[in-house]
Amino acid sequence: MSADIKDRATPSALEVRGLCKSFDVSAPWLNRVIERRERQILRAVDDIDFNVPRGGCLSLVGESGCGKSTVARIVTGLHRPERGEMRFAPGNSGQPMTAQMIFQDPYASLNARWKVFDVIAEPLRELKLRSGKQAIRDRVNELLEVVGLSPADGAKYPHEFSGGQRQRISIARALASEPEFLVCDEPTSALDVSVQAQILNLMRSLQDELGLTYLFISHDLSVVRHMSDRIAVMYLGRIVEEAPTEVLFARTRHPYTQLLLDTIPDVRNPHRDRPLRGGEVPSPLNPPSGCSFHPRCPFADDRCKREKPKLMTCDDGAHIACHRVEESGGLPAGETVSA
Amino acid sequence: MNVLEVRDLRVEFPTHRGVLTALDNVSLSIRPGEILGVVGESGAGKSMTGLAVQGLLEPPGRIASGSVTLNGRRIDTLSDREMTRIRGREIGAIFQDPLTSLNPLFTVGAQLVETIRQHLPMSNSAARSRAVELLAEVGIPAPSERVDHYPHQFSGGMRQRVVIALALAARPGLIIADEPTTALDVSIQAQITALLRRLCVEHGSAVMLVTHDMGVIAETADRVAVMYAGRLIEIGEVAQVTRDPQHPYTQGLMGSIPALGARVPRLQQIDGSMPRLNAIPPGCAFNPRCPQAGPRCRRERPGLITAGAEQAACWLLEGGTA
C-alpha cells in the first residue's frame, strides 16, 4: 500500500511506510508434531503508514490487541520491523532525531534498588553526555526540577514515591539524553485521574519549552483528544482512520471510530439510553477476511467481506480505509444515503 | 425500605505502628432497583466499603463501630458461617478480573449449577436449565452450547457476563460490583454497564457499583458517593453531582477529566496526592490540597452538610468562607 501522505503544512519528524511486524506464537515443536497443530503467526502490525508532525503529537488509539504498543516498540528500536521503512528527520544537531520512551507502569519501569539520582544519571554516564561528578549532579538536579520534583528527591528510592511522582521520574530519565522525540506508551493509564491531569499538563508544557515531538499511545480517546494534533485509529494491526484531531471529532468517518466515540462514557454529557452496539474484537490470530471490521460494521456489504479497503485521502487531510467512505467520495460512513 | 443501610461504618487495621483507620464514619443506603456508584481514587476506601458490607475484610482488618443492615437485618455482627450463607444468596459479587473469579478447571455450567444448588433447593437438571436461562439473560449467544464451555473459551466481555450470571444465580437483592468494567475495552464496557442497568430494572436489585471512572458512574448510576481518604465527602444524584459538584475535591476531580467536547490548553489539576492512612491531616482530610481551605478546615472535621438535593462534607457549605 502506498497511501499518499505527503501534503502536510508541517514537516514530519518521523515518516513510517509499509511497516509490518508478525510474531510467531506457535505451540512448541513437539506439541505441533503430536497434536498436528499448525504454526500460528500473529500479524500485530500489518502494513501501516503514518507521519508524526515535527513539534506536534500523533496519537495511536485502539483497543487491546490492535498493535499500538508494537508500533511504539518498533519506533524505539525494541522490536525489529519485519518490513517497511522508518525515517527520522534530522534534529537540531543535523543527525537524525533520537527517540526515548516513557512506559505505562511506573512501578515496573524504575529499578527498585537504585536511588532516583542514579536512575536519572545512568543515561548521562552511559551515553557520556556529561563528564565529572559535579556536571552529572547539576544535570540530574536540573532534570528533577524540570519535572516538578526537588533535588533532594534524588537521594530517595522509587518506592518512596507515589505513582504520579514515579511517572515524573520516568519522564526525567527519558529527558536525560536530550531526545527530540518521545514515545509515550499509555503514560497515564496506571494513574488516578487527578494525577493524570498533572502528568498531562507537565507533558504539554515540556513540549512547548523543549520543542519535543510526541508519539502518544493510548486507549483513552478523551486523553488523546487533549494531547494530540493528529490521531490515528488502529484496528487489528491496521490504521483505519488518520486525521487532524478536530477533523476526526467533527467528521468521524470510519464506522469503527464512530463506534468508539459512541461508546466512551462522557461525564459531562452522559447518554445513558444510546443504542447498544454489539460485537467483540475478533482475535488477531484469525482476523476476518476483507475489511477486518466488517463483522461488527452496520454498513458492511459483500465487498467489505472480500476486499481489504485501502487508505484514501480526503480534502481535509483525513486518511480513511473504508469502502463506504470511498464510494461516497469522502462522506462519513452512514451518511451515504441521505446525502 | 432500603435494601442496604450502612451507618457510621468505621474499619480499622491494627498494625504494630498503631491503628490505621481505613474507613471513617461512612454512611450510605441503597433502595431496591437503584444503582449507587461509589467513586474515588486508589486508596480512597471504595473497595473496602464493598468488602466490609460483604464481611470479607482481610484480618487484621475489622469493623470497629457502626452497623450494616441488609433488608432490615443487621449483618455486621453475624458469624463467618452465617455470612457465608448470606453471600451469594442475598449479596451477589462481581469483581474486576473475570478470569480470576472463575475456576479454569470447570465448565461455566458446572460452576453455575454448583452456585444455584448451594443456595436454592433444586435438582441437578433443573439447576442446569436455570443455568442456561441465566446465560441467555446476560446476553450470551447460543447459551445451551456455551454452558459446556470452559472459561478460557470465552472472550473478556463474555467472561464478565458469566460472572454476572453467577452473581445473579440466587437472585440476590443486593449486587456489589467492584470495577466490573475496568479490565474491558471501551466498546465492551458499554455493553456490560447497559446489562447491569437492565438487570437492575428487571429484578429490582440494588447495586453498589464501585469504580474509579466518573464516566461509568455518569452513565450507569442513579446516585453517587464520592470517597476520599476513607471518608465519604459527597453524596447525591448523579446528574446533580456531575453537573454542580459541591465539594472542592469533587470539583477538582471533574475538572481534571479531559473533555470530549471543548479542548482546553491546560487541565485543571489537584496538586499533591491523597494522604496515606497513617498521615491523614487533622480537620478535613482534603485541606492540604484544597485551594479554598481556611483555619476551620485544619481544625475541625466537617460532617455531611445538606446543600440542595445532595450532601457534601465541606465547611464552605455552611455559608461564607471556612
From TrEMBL, chain A:
Residues 268-277 have a biased composition (Basic and acidic residues). Its main location: membrane. It is found in: Cell inner membrane. Keywords: ATP-binding, Nucleotide-binding, Transport. One of its GO terms (cellular component) is plasma membrane. It comes from the Bacteria. SMART domains: AAA. Pfam families: ABC_tran, oligo_HPY. It is a peripheral membrane protein. GO terms for biological process: peptide transport; transmembrane transport. GO terms for molecular function: ATP binding; ATP hydrolysis activity. Gene3D superfamilies: P-loop containing nucleotide triphosphate hydrolases. Residues 267-287 are annotated as: Disordered. Residues 14-261 form the ABC transporter domain. NCBIfam families: oligo_HPY. Belongs to the ABC transporter superfamily. This is ABC transporter ATP-binding protein.
UniProtKB/TrEMBL annotation, chain B:
Residues 4-254 form the ABC transporter domain. It is a peripheral membrane protein. CDD domains: ABC_NikE_OppD_transporters. Its main location: membrane. GO terms for cellular component: plasma membrane. Belongs to the ABC transporter superfamily. This is ABC transporter ATP-binding protein. The lineage of its organism: Bacteria, Pseudomonadati, Pseudomonadota, Alphaproteobacteria, Rhodobacterales.
